[in-house]
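Something for you to look into today, if you have time. Just paste the record in under my message, thanks.
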Amino acid sequence: MLFTSYFSVYAQNGMERKQLFDYDWKFFLGDASEAKANEFNDESWRKLDLPHDWSIEGNIHPKNATGGGGGYFPAGIGWYRKTFQVPNEWKAKKTAIYFEGVYMNSEVFINGKSLGVYPYGYSTFSYDLTPYLNFGKENVIAVKVDNSQQMNSRWYSGSGIYRHVWMNTTNAVHTAQWGVAITTPEVSAKKASVQVKTMVKNETLSAQTMVVKTIIWNKNAKNSGNAQVEISLPANSEKEITQTITVSNPLLWTPETPNLYQAQVQVLQSKNVLDDTKINFGIRSIKYTVENGFQLNGKTVKINGGCVHHENGCVGSAAFDRAEERKIELLKAGGFNAVRTSHNPPSEAFLNACDRLGLLVMDESFDCWKQGKNSNDYSKYFEKWWQKDLQTMILRDRNHPSIVMWSIGNEIGERGKPEAVETAKMLLQEIKKIDTTRPVTSAVVNLDKWENLDPLINVHDVAGYNYHLNTAADDHKRVSNRIIVQTESYPKDAFENWKLVQDNKYVIGDFVWTAIDYLGEAGIGRTFYSGETPGENWDNDMFPYHGAYCGDIDLIGWRKPISHYRSMLYNTNEKLYIAVREPAPEPLEIKTTMWSVWPTWESWNWPGFEGKNIVVEVYSKYPKVRLYLDNKLIGEQATTQDQKFKATFTVPYVAGILKAVGVENDKEVESKILKTAGDAAKLKLTTDRKEIHANGQDLSYITIEITDKDGIIQPNAANRLNFKIEGEGVIVGMDNANLKDLDQYVSNTRKAWKGRALVVIKSTRDAGEIKLSVTSDGLEGKSIVVKSLQK
């Protein structure tokens, strides 16, 4: 396989340049300041591998300091320790520890020496260990993670070393960290120019002469072009060199054809390889104009985007590669072609998956600048840290072809003040020092007149509108050169926003809030009965809700009806869908929030409503649809754009079979059915992958469905499920998508909700079979086997 997998290492003179440092840590939940010392006894501490999020393991409780914004999960202080050997041959090397993300306020110690404190929980950072290592002996890394200063987030953050950790070793002559920048300034079907800028460092005490050699490999491991240059560097200096390589008949990167290349950059001395860096990239061009909107490789692309937070449902914020990859698979399956990383830089695994699977990215830096939204949020650190955190994001992420926009903020509190304009200019200029190939935006919400925010919006290359795309036409008349993207929208406005995107070339797309459900911001997308507490989570305490429930896709990966509808608007692969609006028990009424849609289900099981009218929704890209109940025609309706591609039928409920049929030229060409299920009788287990890697990191997602005797899912089943794991795997999370269910996410039992539940199992580092057994009172037990294989 050409492209280096995430867990591979890079060879350099017989040693490993980049080593995964996730294994064999010890953890203590609580403060233990004496744990920074090497001689500290940590025998009683818990043994674990990274990535790790301790918040998701805890109890959801209304008195937890994270509040509704953080999903009522516990936070606090935790300590991690790891003992490791350093070989004597590393004395001549440069050694650094590289953290992809620690939430938050981490302090790292090596052999009792503090290397520094890093506040921002979403930034990648590293420390030079070289001066402090005991070569040929044991060394101790200790990490204090302080997430006790609450509230510091408006959504679930998680706590701990939740992304990968690496040990990087290089020769004294090497490429700098994130020192390779790849752009494609000229792109056509016949040829492309690939510009590779490499920052080479000489950290020796004498001048050095070396050769920098760059080879471009295509996905078939074929050499697509190369270049080399000889340079000389004085002692303790660095120099950036530029190489331009022509690639003939390039395979272009798009969401439909996410072709990747790899640049191999070698630093050689006397034919010895001192440094060997491999960077995956894509050949593609991007352009933004009022006349043609967003163009990828010269073709206008309308963005059907979704906002996502960084957590991964029942495994919390732990950024396992498979969890991040599955998130992208769910977004693609849901019809999205773009994602906004609200409101922080994502994991490297997330961006790698976007590159590999084909998803456009708006990469976002901050939720706030100088004016905070919570008492302990990033505003406390902005003045001191913004430059380093922003530089880190751009340098780390600039080679990803999936990234087509940078965002410098979200709903900034000071947005109506002159100082916000100055801050925006400062951030934009910092980005442009590093990357001029992508536009800069931010998400702006307006509580007054848009004219008042023109000075801020006009600083950006692309105007980001939160929830106000309906003003685009008037704003275009006022500011004719403005390119607009809706950075957040209400799910219920899917059709109206789609039409605005289609009808206006200067409107490049829409990002719905949100693409996937998330923990925290409790209850903003919920529905409720009349008489219950109204409003969103910042108005009232919404416990036991501990998540938002405004996603197109729920926390176990089920696509809600709104997902099918939105995808049908933008895509052609799905043309017919049927669902049923949940009826309210009279005299109560169902109420919605700004971020919710009417609760609608793939269900024709409504006991207690016999003979009462129920509304059936059919979404269709056919000119007409017909609805049948037990093969009796209920009615026919048009489903053109004039009807918003939607038909609703009022049907007195009786158990049976509902069938929606798409009609074209008066011929019935496609059908979808909902069938009343009988009593819960059986368990059905399916896995997303039957084989996983025995690396202690890989995951298998196993869906449990409760069906009747004929295998039809029973949508009202809420049976208690019990789980047992055997073999070379462990359970790392379980869920049912019910954001009012207070069962722990890391456990061995969970109720089903709407007939479904999910279990996530993780491999150990030993190959073998993993058997998950599921039992439930009154149902026959069921098991499934996943094979865990060594590479």
In short: Helices lie at 321-333, 348-357, 382-397, 418-434, 454-457, 472-478, 494-503, 561-570.
